[in-house]
Amino acid sequence: WDETHFGKMGSYYINRTFFFDVHPPLGKMLIGLAGYLSGYDGTFPFQKPGDRYEQHNYVGMRGFCAFLGSCLVPLAYLTVLELSKSLPAALLTAFILIFDTGCITLSQYILLDPILMFFLMGAVLSMVKCNSCADRPFSASWWFWMSLTGVNLAGAMGVKFVGLFVVLLVGLNTMHDLWDLLGNLSLSLVVFGKHLLARVLCLILLPLALYTAMFAVHFTVLNKSGPGDGFFSSAFQSQLIGNNLHNISVPE
């Protein structure tokens, strides 16, 4: 059913047609990019669910979502292996996901869900890996996993606002870490300040910068008049090619 919406929005990006949607833009931009790179020309109308694609090349968009959905299996395996240090537990987790009908169904269509789940699980894995580097703070691997956690947080938030839940999870984990560090009398306040600054940089400023950059790309790409014009001000509409107000000169 939702292919009708998100496939159409992928077409909007390919055609650079402005639209409005309740979700942040990253997932739809990635779907549009996958379609563009795989040869889809953005001309399929997506009028109602179940319409045949005929000669239109939709495989790239579905394939991209299916690929990210399949990545959930190794991500879950690595997360449980890191948490439990148990190979049977990690394998059981992977097999549960491989044979999960809901996961398979969600991953085979042009939807935001597999993209969202990829970033959610990526954020959890990165957080767990970063926790395992706690005995060697400020090492290259520590910085890598903390930065990757921030990137995945931005990705999850950039696909759907449901990504806030993983932001909450990482936030609670970070507060727990900082509380433990504050209670460690062998650490000076200067070192604690460095720990705090590193987390602010990687888990707050980096995700915010990436999230803002997504909207910068969104508004740069969608420069033609479309169905979303009416949600925005006259000043904004005057920047859209093909709009009645395009480049019109009026008193402010």
TrEMBL record:
An example Gene Ontology CC term for this record:
membrane
Pathway(s) this gene product operates in, as recorded in its UniProt entry:
Protein modification; protein glycosylation
- Membrane-crossing residue ranges in chain numbering: 59-80, 87-109, 143-176, 196-217
InterPro entries, per this entry? ArnT-like_N, PMT-like
Which compartments does it reside in? Endomembrane system
Give start and end of each ArnT-like N-terminal domain.
Answer: 1-223
* Single GO biological process annotation from the record: protein O-linked glycosylation
Q: Keywords in UniProt for this one?
A: Glycosyltransferase, Membrane, Transferase, Transmembrane, Transmembrane helix
Q: Which domain of life is it from?
A: Eukaryota
Q: Which family does this protein fall into?
A: Belongs to the glycosyltransferase 39 family.
Q: What is this protein called?
A: Protein O-mannosyl-transferase 2
